[in-house]
Design brief:
- By secondary structure, this protein is of the alpha/beta class.
- It is built from 14 helices and 18 strands.
- The chain has helices at 2-5, 8-16, 37-40, 94-106, 115-122, 136-146, 161-165, 222-242, 258-267, 276-289, 292-300, 313-316, 326-335, 376-382; strands spanning 23-28, 47-54, 57-60, 73-78, 126-130, 151-157, 169-170, 173-174, 180-186, 205-208, 250-255, 272-275, 306-312, 323-325, 339-345, 349-352, 360-362, 368-374.
- The strands form five sheets. It has a six-stranded parallel beta sheet, with helices on both faces. It has a four-stranded antiparallel beta sheet with strand order 1-4-2-3, with helices on one face.
- Strand 10, helix 8 (222-242) and strand 11 form a beta-alpha-beta unit.
């Protein structure tokens, strides 16, 4: 779901759940006791703090005023557990502080700080899901929370509509979606002509799942399913191209076999792909090493909590093409209530927990910042965004 709206998020999750780059670690730092989160956040040169582990609970992306208590552990994203330590808090220059103050004055306080979230909530979307899965109801509820009122969610698969509706019940009654209308369509995206019968030209994103609802697919190997997925993706591209909408729509595919992954990457037929089996395996491996990760993943996928998202540099920084350190970017993010932990550029790719955070760098319109931010549902509950 996240990848269908912001394709780079899929790559971010691959890195987070991998073992080759930055990982999550928890450790006590007695010298940070009684320090507010806004100071703690800028006190680790070689890591990015994500939150506080307090007993069995995790305070993810806490407010700036949250104080570290005795016995608290700081949850960070770092290269390894021995590659980071707490240091002196980074203090932005007077010029950076002045820049932020000027932006706040022009934006009349917090009106524009949540502007990105407001736009995200109010935006109508049209999402086409090709395939079937038993948890599609939960996925649809996630779409309902993330999209603006009046959005459409098409489900195209071979499962009869009456059978599908049995999955969309809550307490025995049809679920009442708030922001989306679920439209069931019977068909197979891999078949010629099926997609042309749908308003695909107006789709904002298309997600192709690995399961189609075909009664015989239980006998298919992961490679067979991936072949079907790739054919469906090519059909989607063809239909979008005919409708002159290929570059207006995000295409995401689910891949099961890691060997198919390299084929999809090389062919560049999707904006993003999700290797679901691989991600699940990695998650289980991380949880087996540290049970804290299980609680963390629960928090990261909680629709009423925080989520990984992407921000354009042009909408995040006061001005572009200026020499600002990554610490400065993190500082600007905290003023928005967002936790910046990486960036993306076409030349560098996805960089998490950058090195030399205090070194000035020129940020251009081609840069995107990777952040942990409150979900739209969380913001709605707080009354900070429109429904």
């Amino acid at each position: 779901l996240q990848a269908s709206r912001q394709p780079i998020v899929a790559g971010v999750w691959e890195l987070i759940l991998g073992f080759d780059g930055a990982e999550f670690y928890c450790k006590e730092w007695p010298e940070l006791t009684d320090k507010p989160w806004k100071d703690v956040f800028l006190s680790f040169p070689n890591a990015v703090p994500f939150g506080i582990k307090r007993g069995e609970d995790i305070l993810l992306n806490p407010s700036d005023s949250t104080l570290v208590e005795a016995d608290d552990e700081i949850l960070v994203l770092a290269e390894d557990d021995d590659t980071y330590e707490a240091g002196e808090k980074y203090v932005p220059s007077k010029a950076v502080t002045f820049m932020l103050g000027r932006v706040n004055a022009l934006s009349s306080g917090s009106d524009l700080k949540r502007a990105e979230s407001v736009r995200r909530v109010s935006r109508k979307e049209q999402i086409l899901f090709c395939g079937w899965r038993s948890d599609l109801f939960e996925l649809a509820k996630g779409v309902d929370m993330a999209c603006g009122r009046g959005s459409l969610f098409y489900i195209l698969c071979e499962v009869p509509v009456e059978d599908r509706k049995l999955f969309f019940l809550e307490d025995g009654e049809p679920y009442d979606f708030h922001n989306i209308e679920v439209i069931h369509v019977v068909g197979d995206a891999a078949q010629d002509g099926v997609l042309e019968s749908l308003p695909i030209a107006s789709c904002t994103s298309v997600v192709v799942g690995s399961l189609t609802g075909d009664p015989d697919e239980k006998t298919w190997s992961p490679g067979d399913r991936d072949s079907r997925t790739i054919v469906s993706i090519l059909r989607v591209r063809e239909a979008l191209l005919k409708a002159d909408a290929l570059f207006k729509c995000i295409i995401v595919g689910e891949i099961l076999d890691t060997r198919s992954r390299f084929l999809v990457e090389k062919a560049e037929i999707t904006d993003a792909f999700v290797a679901s089996h691989e991600l699940i395996s990695r998650s289980l491996a991380m949880v087996s090493e540290d049970v804290t990760v299980n609680k963390l993943l629960e928090r990261l996928f909680d629709p009423s909590g925080n989520e990984v998202s992407v921000r354009k540099a042009s909408r995040f920084l006061p001005s572009l093409n200026e020499q600002l350190s990554f610490y400065d970017v993190m500082f600007f993010g905290r003023d928005r209530g967002e936790l910046v932990f990486g960036y993306y550029s076409p030349t560098e790719g996805i960089i998490l927990n950058p090195e030399n955070k205090d070194k000035p760098k020129t940020w251009t319109s081609r840069h995107l910042f990777i952040v942990l931010t409150q979900t739209t549902l969380a913001l709605q509950k707080a009354g900070e965004v429109r429904g």
